[in-house]
């Protein structure tokens, strides 16, 4: 019994080894993407874009990210493993703009092309950064919210975290625009719900309790916006909600009016552009230092426009 | 799935052969390394092996802390966020107050010891069950870390040499071909020290005694509260070491991370054969458990296994490890 099972094990191991060797032998250029997160639909949409570009340009693409956003050291381990695979290029969405730098230096020394996507790093090693202008997009959210509440009254922000570059920029872009352009609007609270639907919903209910005259809330990512919408529904409030990103729950809420509208990035485009930049660099073509992947305002009126539909994800 | 099957086959084989049962965990580690090495030429390369060891350093140190507590019949859910809290304390001392490392690092270690002792007091004097006490402390450390930092990372750019603690290489300075980071060296030193404490000191004996029969210990007139508090305090100090290693590796104290790390640490402990009901376990086992987790994570990545399946495989390995351990025990 012992030997038979062991034999089966060895056979299985050899088969595994066999398939891996075949995969390696195809000799397509290989680009490894290390993202900031994995489970959120947003990151899955980035993955989709990366895979689309992989097929189009005939390169192998892998896509990984830490389970929880914020796990800086887990991301470093992923980058190390990716470097060990000797890819032609590595694309990363850094959680911490500084911590990844030593590994990027190692990648550069190994002759691997380095690309940044979604978030920048504090280094000139990445040849380009394919990302959304978070400050400008959050400022647009502020403009839209101000317009809908008649340019005066109290508003609040429900954000996902206080530490990441995107979290900070979306909050600051919104706050700066409100403070500078809309002096009659007061931001009474900025709360953080970790992008968790339930936590963000509880925060929203508390805010509505604390400020009965609150006119609007900006939920700064998918989880936050959905949470705000849930909180609003449970209380039966008619506050104006502005969201960010998409996802089925959010687009449904926009269709039924719970959320007035939202900013959408172009996550599929972010993944696509990151891979495309890698391919161009490998061919020796020139790549611009920053690729703006764009953002849009969408609401009930334009949610089915082809341009918008193409960048929304379920 | 293939890897799991392979492991199952060999593990059950070794179990039945009886005499080799002590090599069970070590054998599965070697087997995993062998399988990954055959499957990919990129796996067994110096740089990658070092990357695996480095990936083990923080979780390994946390798992050592968790092992002590678990052998004593308790559980510590706060190891991850206590680690972060101690990193933040180091940030306050070194960056905010500008103190030198000789003050900042012992300061962070003391914070860990004191925090652990506090947990011990909650459990012994206030009679709060360890699961609840450490669950509460887990959240308290997380909140305090965010509050102290103003919810922003604290960088150690003004403390030259801080990153060397984890990423520098004393071994590499002596043997250039073997640039093993200091973080790995520290992991092994902590493991040796913890094994020594466990096997050769009064604290170690009482740790085992607390876990196997607390009531008998109490009846024999031993002041068990004191020893329990000591166990949690030492575990807290070890979490502080993990905090320094983590902060040094990423050159910053990141207040938002840490939660979830306790589960990886506990996984390493149980894969290493330590009983969750207390009274039984070894540091060697925990080290092997921590290495198995890192090897699997790294190896599956090297093989480009989709991330969803990496998680499934890791979960299966935990269950399989404990199951085979149970079988072995029943058979023995």
User: In DSSP terms, counting alpha (H) and pi (I) runs of 4 or more, how many helices of chain A?
Assistant: 11
Topology of chain B as a string of helices (H) and strands (E): HHHHHHEHHHHHEHHH
Assigned CATH superfamily of the largest domain in chain A = Response regulator
Total strands of chain B: 2
Mean pLDDT of chain A: 88
Content-based structural category of chain B: mainly alpha
CATH topology of chain B: ABC transporter involved in vitamin B12 uptake, BtuC
End-to-end separation of chain A in angstroms reads 50 Å
Number of domains of chain A: 2
CATH fold annotation of the largest domain in chain A: Rossmann fold
Q: Hey, which two chains have the biggest interface?
A: A-B, 47 and 53 residues
Characterization of this structure:
The complex is a heterodimer of chains A (314) and B (332). Chain A has 314 residues and is of the alpha/beta class. Chain A has 2 domains: 25-132 and 267-294, Response regulator (Rossmann fold); 134-265, Rossmann fold (3-Layer(aba) Sandwich). Chain A has helices at residues 2-25, 41-56, 72-84, 101-109, 134-148, 165-181, 197-210, 222-235, 248-255, 267-282, 306-311, and strands spanning 30-34, 60-64, 89-92, 113-117, 129-131, 153-159, 185-192, 214-219, 240-244, 261-265, 290-292, 295-299. In chain A, strands 2-1-3-4-5-11 form a 6-stranded parallel β-sheet, sandwiched between helices. A 6-stranded mixed β-sheet of chain A has the order 7-6-8-9-10-12, sandwiched between helices. In chain A, β9 (240-244), α9 (248-255) and β10 form a beta-alpha-beta unit. The radius of gyration of chain A is 22 Å and the shape is elongated. Residues 1-25 of chain A have low confidence and may be disordered. Chain B has one domain: ABC transporter involved in vitamin B12 uptake, BtuC (Orthogonal Bundle). Chain B is 75% helix and 1% strand. Chain B has a two-stranded antiparallel sheet with strand order 1-2. The radius of gyration of chain B is 20 Å and the shape is globular. Chain B starts with a helix and ends with a helix. Classes of the chains: A alpha/beta (314), B mainly alpha (332). At the A-B interface, α1, β2 and α3 of A face α1, α2, α3, α11 and α13 of B.
């Amino acid at each position: 019994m012992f030997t038979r099972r062991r034999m089966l094990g060895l056979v299985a191991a050899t088969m595994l080894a066999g398939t891996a060797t075949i995969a390696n032998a195809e000799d397509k250029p290989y680009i490894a993407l290390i993202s900031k997160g994995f489970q959120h639909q947003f990151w899955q949409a980035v993955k989709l874009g990366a895979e689309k570009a992989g097929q189009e340009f005939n390169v192998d693409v892998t896509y990984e990210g830490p389970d929880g956003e914020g796990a800086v050291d887990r991301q470093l381990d992923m980058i190390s493993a990716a470097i060990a695979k000797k890819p032609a290029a590595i694309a990363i969405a850094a959680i911490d703009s500084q911590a990844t730098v030593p590994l990027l230096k190692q990648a550069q020394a190994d002759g691997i092309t380095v690309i940044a996507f979604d978030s920048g790093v504090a280094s000139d090693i990445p040849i380009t950064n394919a990302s959304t202008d978070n400050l400008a997009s959050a400022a647009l959210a502020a403009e839209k919210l101000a317009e809908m509440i008649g340019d005066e009254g109290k508003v609040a922000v429900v954000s996902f975290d206080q530490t990441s570059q995107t979290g900070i920029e979306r909050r600051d872009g919104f706050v700066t625009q409100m403070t500078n352009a809309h002096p009659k609007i007061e931001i009474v609270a900025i709360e953080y719900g970790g992008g968790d639907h339930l936590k963000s919903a509880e925060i929203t209910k508390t805010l509505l309790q604390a400020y009965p005259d609150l006119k609007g809330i900006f939920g700064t990512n998918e989880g936050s916006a959905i949470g705000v919408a849930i909180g609003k529904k449970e209380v039966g409030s008619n506050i104006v909600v502005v969201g960010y990103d998409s996802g089925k729950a959010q687009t449904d809420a926009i269709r039924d009016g719970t959320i007035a509208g939202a900013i959408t990035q172009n996550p599929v485009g972010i993944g696509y552009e990151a891979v495309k930049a890698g391919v161009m660099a490998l061919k020796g073509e020139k790549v611009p230092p920053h690729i703006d992947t764009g953002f849009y305002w969408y609401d009930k009126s334009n949610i089915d426009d082809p341009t918008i539909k193409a960048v929304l994800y379920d | 799935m293939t890897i799991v099957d392979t492991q199952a086959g060999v593990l059950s084989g070794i179990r039945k052969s009886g005499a080799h049962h002590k090599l069970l965990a070590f054998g599965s580690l070697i087997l995993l390394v062998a399988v990954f090495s055959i499957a990919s030429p990129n796996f067994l390369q110096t740089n990658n092996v070092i990357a695996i060891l480095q990936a083990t350093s923080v979780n390994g140190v946390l798992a050592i802390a968790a092992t002590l507590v678990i052998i004593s019949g308790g559980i510590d859910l706060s190891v991850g966020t206590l680690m972060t809290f101690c990193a933040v304390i180091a940030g306050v001392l070194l960056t905010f107050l500008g103190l030198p490392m000789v003050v900042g690092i012992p300061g962070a270690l003391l914070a860990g010891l004191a925090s652990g002792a506090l947990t011990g007091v909650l459990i012994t004097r206030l009679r709060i069950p360890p699961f609840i006490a450490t669950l509460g402390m887990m959240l308290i450390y997380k909140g305090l870390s965010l509050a102290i930092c103003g919810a922003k990372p604290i960088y150690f750019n003004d403390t030259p040499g801080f990153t060397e603690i984890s990423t520098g290489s004393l071994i590499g300075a002596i043997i250039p071909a073997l640039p093993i980071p200091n973080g790995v060296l520290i992991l092994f030193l902590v493991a040796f020290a913890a094994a020594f404490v466990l096997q050769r000191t009064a604290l170690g004996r009482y740790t085992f005694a607390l876990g196997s029969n607390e009531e008998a210990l109490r009846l024999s007139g031993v002041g068990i509260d004191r020893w329990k508090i000591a166990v949690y305090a030492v575990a807290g100090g070890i979490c502080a070491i993990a905090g320094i290693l983590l902060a040094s590796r990423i050159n910053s104290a990141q207040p938002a991370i840490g939660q979830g790390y306790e589960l990886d640490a506990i996984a390493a402990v149980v894969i290493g054969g330590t009983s969750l009901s207390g009274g039984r376990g070894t540091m060697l086992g925990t080290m092997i458990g921590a290495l198995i987790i890192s090897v699997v994570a790294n190896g599956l990545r090297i093989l480009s296994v989709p991330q969803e399946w990496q998680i499934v495989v890791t979960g299966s390995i935990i269950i399989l490890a404990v199951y085979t351990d149970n079988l072995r025990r029943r058979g023995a």
